């Protein structure tokens, strides 16, 4: 009996210490633009949902979603809730950087959307950016363990070189302001910058880029411009982590049944121990 009791203690101790994985997906879904013709949102939206369901991330950060696109995803992804606002009015106008999360696994404790500019609390265009840009963040509690995780999702400007660097610095500044330097943090999004450029190096100094160190799979790049036969080497979409151990890092290159791309960006998928 003593041997059995010791064995049970060992088993339950091991179970208590075993690592659980949490998954994250960053996905620029491409805004609804009828000029995209065969790649128009109306033709792709079912495939976008299918890809998300196939990978079933615990957290999904989307970029470029207009309000009706976000609402569509919300209806189709019934196991998720979302947070976020439109960048043009702080309500429903303009593109979202929304965060979808599995509410059966995580409780939302706090959320906010801020503008990437010198006036973060109001609709504004920062530095040399062409458009208003935002970041949405949420503080979440793991219902199983009680641990907290902080998720930021963003989309940097496509023209403003200064704005992209300043935006990266601003997000890191927010992490410090919120007292998260020793917390579990994820920053994901379309950063419109390739490795070696300022915004990426700003993040790499403070956060972990699992592309180079985790078990990576997929093509090197994430932007395909809807070119059917292009194998992208332009990496502009990222998931950075802080105080988390990454398990896998993947660029998803699955196509629609007709051979076209699901979006003009590949989704980025990461599993981390949490």
List descriptors.
274 residues; alpha+beta; six-stranded mixed sheet; 5 helices
Question: Concise description?
Answer:
The protein has about 270 residues and is an alpha+beta fold. It contains five helices and 13 strands. The longest helix is centred in the middle third of the chain and has 17 residues, at about 160-175.
Outline the structure in words.
It is a single chain. This protein has 274 residues and is an alpha+beta fold. It is built from 5 helices and 13 strands. The chain has helices at residues 2-17, 41-55, 67-76, 161-177, 198-206; strands spanning 21-28, 59-63, 80-83, 99-102, 106-115, 134-142, 148-155, 185-190, 208-209, 215-217, 237-242, 245-252, 267-273. The strands form 2 sheets. It has a 7-stranded mixed β-sheet, with no helix packed on it. Helix 4 links the parallel strand 7 and strand 8. The longest helix is centred in the middle third of the chain and has 17 residues, at 161-177. The two termini are 35 Å apart. It comes from Pseudotenacibaculum haliotis. Residues 1-19 form the signal peptide. This is Endonuclease/exonuclease/phosphatase family protein. Residues 25-265 form the Endonuclease/exonuclease/phosphatase domain. Keywords: Endonuclease, Hydrolase, Nuclease, Signal.
């Amino acid at each position: 009996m003593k041997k059995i009791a010791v064995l049970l203690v060992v088993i339950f101790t091991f179970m208590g210490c075993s690592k659980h994985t949490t998954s994250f997906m960053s996905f620029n879904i491409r805004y609804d633009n009828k000029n995209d013709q065969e790649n128009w949102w109306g033709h792709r939206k079912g495939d976008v949902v299918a890809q998300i369901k196939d990978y079933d991330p615990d957290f999904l950060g989307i970029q470029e979603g207009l309000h009706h696109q976000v609402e569509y995803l919300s209806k189709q992804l019934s196991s998720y809730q979302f947070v976020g606002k439109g960048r043009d009015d702080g309500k429903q106008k303009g593109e979202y950087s929304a965060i979808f999360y599995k509410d059966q696994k995580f409780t939302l404790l706090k959320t906010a959307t801020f503008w990437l500019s010198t006036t973060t609390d109001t609709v504004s265009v920062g530095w040399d950016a062409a458009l208003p840009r935002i970041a949405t963040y949420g503080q979440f509690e793991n219902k199983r363990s009680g641990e907290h995780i902080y998720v930021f999702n963003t989309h940097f400007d496509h023209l403003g070189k200064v704005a992209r660097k300043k935006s990266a610095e601003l997000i890191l500044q927010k992490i410090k302001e919120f007292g998260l330097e020793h917390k579990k943090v994820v920053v994901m999004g379309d950063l419109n910058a390739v490795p070696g450029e300022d915004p990426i190096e700003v993040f790499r100094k403070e956060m972990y880029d699992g592309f180079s160190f985790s078990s990576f799979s997929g093509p090197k790049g994430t932007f395909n411009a809807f070119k059917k036969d292009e194998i992208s080497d332009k990496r502009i979409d990222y998931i950075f982590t802080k105080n988390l151990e990454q398990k896998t890092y993947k660029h998803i290159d699955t196509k629609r049944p007709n051979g076209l791309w699901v979006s003009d960006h590949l989704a980025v998928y990461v599993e981390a121990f949490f």
